[in-house]
């Protein structure tokens, strides 16, 4: 039986005989590490258990700098960490650096910034509403254009009414105060409506003066007299007869 002063020995895989270490009951306790926290112009050391989550670290930091956990952003190695992530699993060790940033909420934003953002959103929505109306009018323009350029006529009042409806959309667009992306969309929609108005002007002109189909057209094929010199005769053929008959004049050729 071994005495109380006798040490236990164990053989390492390398073959070296070393004194066996006694189990340390404290080894089962969480390891405390010190992380270096940086916030604005403040830098301080924060001792925390390595098994803490970043969310728990936020709670501890909140007691020191007075910043609510919900508005804190913790960055480790340049990446924002989620509240449920554990320090030791993320690679946080003793003397690791953690950056604290404040995330602005809607209430904390500048009232002017909120106002501008709201106006931009409203402008884009207004342009979208006009675009829906223009889409419907564009279909009507295409239908009328197909009828008129297909050789048929439509009532002139229908053309005038459709043109006036397009002009109303231009007035709506002119009254929209938009910025940023909304301003670009408004400009594109204005050009689109102007193009549709120009199309309606062409339709109106065609509807008022349709091409006439002349069924009494005369086709004349003439063979001109050729002399030995190769020069054609200067004598013009007689005028065509006023009928649909195809006339072929054979002129006498001299040897």
UniProtKB/TrEMBL annotation:
InterPro entries: BAG_chaperone_regulator, BAG_dom_sf, BAG_domain, Ubiquitin-like_dom, Ubiquitin-like_domsf. It comes from the Eukaryota. Residues 31-105 form the Ubiquitin-like domain. GO terms for molecular function: adenyl-nucleotide exchange factor activity; protein-folding chaperone binding. Residues 126-204 form the BAG domain. GO terms for biological process: protein stabilization. Keywords: Chaperone, Coiled coil. Residues 1-30 are annotated as: Disordered. Residues 120-147 form a coiled coil. One of its GO terms (cellular component) is cytoplasm. Pfam families: BAG, ubiquitin. PANTHER family: BAG FAMILY MOLECULAR CHAPERONE REGULATOR 4-LIKE ISOFORM X1, BCL2-ASSOCIATED ATHANOGENE. This is BAG family molecular chaperone regulator 4-like isoform X1.
């Amino acid at each position: 039986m071994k005495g109380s002063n006798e040490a236990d020995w164990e053989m390492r895989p390398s073959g070296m005989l070393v004194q066996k270490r006694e189990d340390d009951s404290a080894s089962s306790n969480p390891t405390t590490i010190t992380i270096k926290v940086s916030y604005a112009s403040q830098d301080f050391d924060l001792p925390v258990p390595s098994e803490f989550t970043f969310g728990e670290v936020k709670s501890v930091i909140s007691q020191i700098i007075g910043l609510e956990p919900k508005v804190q952003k913790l960055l480790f190695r340049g990446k924002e960490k989620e509240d449920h992530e554990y320090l030791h699993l993320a690679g946080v060790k003793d003397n690791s650096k953690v950056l604290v940033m404040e995330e602005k909420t809607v209430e904390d934003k500048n009232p002017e910034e909120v106002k501008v953002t709201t106006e931009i959103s409203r402008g884009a929505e207004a342009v979208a509403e006009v675009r829906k109306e223009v889409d419907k009018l564009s279909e009507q323009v295409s239908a009328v254009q197909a009828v008129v350029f297909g050789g048929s006529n439509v009532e002139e009042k229908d053309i005038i009414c459709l043109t006036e409806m397009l002009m109303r959309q231009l007035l709506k667009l002119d009254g929209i105060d938009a910025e940023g992306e909304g301003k670009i969309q408004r400009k594109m929609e204005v050009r689109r409506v102007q193009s549709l108005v120009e199309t309606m002007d062409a339709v109106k002109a065609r509807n008022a003066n349709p091409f006439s189909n002349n069924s009494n057209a005369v086709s004349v094929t003439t063979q001109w007299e050729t002399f030995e010199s190769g020069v054609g005769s200067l004598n013009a053929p007689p005028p065509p007869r006023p009928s649909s008959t195809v006339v072929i004049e054979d002129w006498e050729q001299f040897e």
